[in-house]
Amino acid sequence: MAVIIHECGHLFAMLICKSPPGKIKISLFEIKIINSSRQLNTTCQNIFIIFFGPLVNFICFILFYLLYLCNSEFLLPIAMANLCTGLFNMLPVMSLDGGQLMYVILCGKFSGKSAERIINITALIILFPLTVLGFTVLLNSKYNFSLLFVCIYLIASLLFRNNGYY
């Protein structure tokens, strides 16, 4: 549900900016909204569209958390799912919103190739301790491999996929 809320945030921002999606791809590991008119948008519009997905997750987190505090215990998992989805998507990996956001900002100062290189190095610096944490969680829990799996997937996507600006 948090992922759908997230993607609807991007779609709503595109609607506000009059920048309709060209294509929506759904796969096992991701939902990707292709904004074919992104090059026609201003930098501020692109930042708004990219950041609006995580922003909606953070707003939903606050809303559901406040409702949880009013004795609605079943809402805590929904609040946490939105927080985790928003934070996850802000990681500086080109295939995630954080990487796309960094790319738009860095391209104001650097070439596209240099911006990608900076983002990939930053991603590896952040993903390494997260991978160690994921391994630690796995060892301590004996079964919870989710963080480790996600980190390995993101590192593999850095190494083996075309993660350009889309």
Written account of the structure:
- The protein has 166 residues and is mainly alpha-helical.
- The longest helix has 30 residues, at 112-141.
- Helix 1 packs across helix 2 (43-69), helix 4 packs antiparallel against helix 5 and helix 5 packs antiparallel against helix 6.
- It is 67% helix and 5% strand.
- A two-stranded antiparallel sheet has the order 1-2.
- The protein has helices at 2-16, 43-69, 76-89, 97-106, 112-141, 146-160, and strands at 23-26, 31-34.
- The protein has six helices and two strands, in the order H-E-E-H-H-H-H-H.
- It is globular, with a radius of gyration of 17 Å.
- It has two domains: 1-90, no CATH class; 101-166, no CATH class.
Average pLDDT value? 92
How large is the radius of gyration?
A: 17 Å
Number of domains: 2
Main β-sheet, in a few words? 2 strands, antiparallel
Keywords: Hydrolase, Membrane, Metal-binding, Metalloprotease, Protease, Transmembrane, Transmembrane helix, Zinc
InterPro entries: Peptidase_M50
GO molecular function: metal ion binding; metallopeptidase activity
Subcellular location: Membrane
List the helices and strands and how they pair.
Layout: H1 2-16, E1 23-26, E2 31-34, H2 43-69, H3 76-89, H4 97-106, H5 112-141, H6 146-160
Antiparallel strand pairs: 1-2
Helix pairs in contact: 1-2, 1-3, 2-3, 2-4, 4-5, 5-6
